[in-house]
Amino acid sequence: MTENTTIDTAAETEYPQPRYDSAGPVAAIGNSKASRRSFIKGVIASGAVASSASYVFGGLSGCTPEQAATPGGVERLMSLNVNGEVRRVDVLPNETLAMTLRYKLNLTGTKLGCDRGECGACTVLVDGVPNYSCSTLTHTVRDKAVRTIEGLESPNGDLHPVQQAMIDELGPQCGFCTPGQIMSAVALLEANPSPTRDEARRWLSGNLCRCGAYDHYLNAVMRAAQSA
Amino acid sequence: MSKDMMPHFELFQPDSEETALDLLSRFGDEGWPVAGGHDSLSWFKDRAKYAANVVDLTGIASMRGIREVDGGIEIGALTTLTEIENNDIVQSRYGLLAQAAGHVASPQIRNVGTLGGNLNQDARCWYYRYGVDCYRAGGNTCYADTPEGQNREHCLWGADRCVAVSPSDVAPAMVALDATMIVRSASGTREVAAEDYFIGPDIDIERMTVLEPGELLTAVRIPGDWANAQFYFEKVADRNTWDFPLVNIASAMVVENGTISRIRIAAGAVQCTPRRLTVVEEVVTGSAPDEETAALAGQAAVRGATPLNFNHFKIPLLENLVKRAIRDA
Predict the structure, then answer these.
(1) What is the pLDDT of residue A2?
(2) Surface of B (187-246) touching A: CB under 8 A
(3) What is the pLDDT of residues A87-126, one digit of tens each?
(4) Are residues A99 and A141 in contact, defined by beta-carbon separation less than 8 angstroms?
């Protein structure tokens, strides 16, 4: 999977804002066909993208534009604001944010555990609020700001206070749920900079840890709250 | 990890109720409204249900927010459970609802899960969710109500081929608060009392509310009658997070001169609809909210319960929750 999976904003012409409006589906069909075609041409030029796309979406029938159940839905090409950057990306109507982040934008820090909103490994912030990205359709966050674990480090390489506290307190064991735990903790401290341990416990209750390192995570959150 | 995707569907994102209703009436059986998506997407991911056209309602601003109306409040169906839990008016006057909303699932699910989605969510019977051809799915078998069926979570009342229960924490609170559901379709608006909004398998085995295809729950109105009453909410589940209730209880009680002058009380997860405990209401009205009244209320609450093989425990559980609601509110 390479950076080629995203489309450079500067290299592309302006696409219509992909939103259903009262102008009706007919207007949208014309736009969507043209832009899909130009996108697909671009993709064929790049073998790496074609093969990675078939890895992720292969074996799935019914997701080519020709087989669309009803025309007139959302425009697939969209701009996604991730970690302060606006990135152009081709998103299927049935694609979840976790899929887009991991397999289109190469932001693999966000983990997929259960893919059912039952574990919290995929937690990202949408407009500052923790969401399960496995259960969020990417098209529903078009106008919002997404933050993932990759967006926490400051440009000079300093870790976010929560990340640093996780290291200092030996928060994670296996580490798989850690990005999700950290994203929940970051949102907590932004909403409430000095939580009690019980408040932190409740706020992080939507993130499972199979190793059972909950107390270590809470130690880290409380340390980050003091250092921030 | 799942590298799989949901089957393809077209996604529509209307920005007004009118456009959404127009789309849904056009799509008929092939349309599927989605708000927070936690109920819907798991159906699609599991290939248990499918819709060709998904209508994302979250861009409709008019269906969001909490307003004061006629001495009560109106809550847009797209208001998230977190917004409800943290809202000042809800907290100060309808604490019951704030508590119920705060007990749903997990923080992340409450952050996107909406009032409408919570009230309209489908049955959580795992056989049904697994995609088997049970009665509720249009077949002719119930897999839960068999000698070996795993029915620990299932109903005590109202079994009719299907033994699934109402899984909502918010629904019993709405029944206790005597809320009114505002239902819109392309052809007009109707209002339905919360108590009548939910329906059992005897009325229609394939759905849990009176909503017809093409209709949307746009808002819920809560009257002023029960504002600042003495509230009691408790949910018992196997886990503190994520889990659906084994039994929950919601009550609104007004005590004057040491006696209960009026009360509405409802339990969830004991039948297919939130069960309003009218017998309890009749037993306790006019009495003091003490230990003796609470004991009578608890006994009255469980009369007629018909347990399945593995859910007998729900009878003393409900009895105790009703006791606490009367005694500890």
Answers:
(1) 40
(2) 240-242
(3) 999 999 999 999 999 999 999 999 999 999 999 999 999 9
(4) no
Q: Do residues B75 and B115 make contact, with C-beta atoms less than 8 angstroms apart?
A: yes
Yes or no, beta carbons of A21 and B44 under 8 Å apart: no
Interface of B with A in 80-119 (CB under 8 A): 82, 105-109, 111-112
Please give the structure tokens belonging to residue A201: 């416990």
Q: Is B35 on the interface with A (CB under 8 A)?
A: no
* B287 part of contact set with chain A, CB < 8 Å: no
Which residues are CB-contacts of A208 (< 8 A; sequence separation ≥ 6)? A113, A118, A119, A120, A121, A177
Residue A72 pLDDT:
65
Inter-chain contact B56–A137, Cβ cutoff 8 Å?
yes
Beta-carbon count within 10 A of A187 CB: 25
CA distance to partner chain B, nearest, from residue A117 (Å): 7
Instruction: Identify which of B9, B14, B107 has the shortest CB distance to residue A20.
Output: B14
Answer whether CATH 3.80.30.20 is correct for domain A161-227.
Answer: no
Closest-CA residue of chain B to A113: B1
Please name the member of B11, B19, B45 whose beta carbon is closest to the beta carbon of A73.
B11
pLDDT of residue A73: 85
Which of A1, A20, A146 would best serve as a mutation to test chain B binding (most B beta carbons within 10 A)?
A20
Topology classification of domain A3-150: Ubiquitin-like (UB roll) (3.10.20)
Q: What is the pTM of this model?
A: 0.87
Round the average pLDDT of chain A to a whole number and report it.
Answer: 79
pLDDT of residue A39: 45
Chain A CB contacts of B44 below 8 Å? 94
How far is it, in rounded angstroms, from Cα A79 to Cα A85? 10
Element containing residue B263 per DSSP (H, E):
strand B259-268
The yes-or-no verdict on residue B181 having pLDDT over 70 is yes
Report the complex ipTM. 0.95
Chain segment B230-284, per-residue pLDDT in tens: 999 999 999 999 999 999 999 999 999 999 999 999 999 999 999 999 999 999 9
- Which structure tokens are listed for B160? 């009719």
CA A48/CA A169 separation, integer angstroms: 41
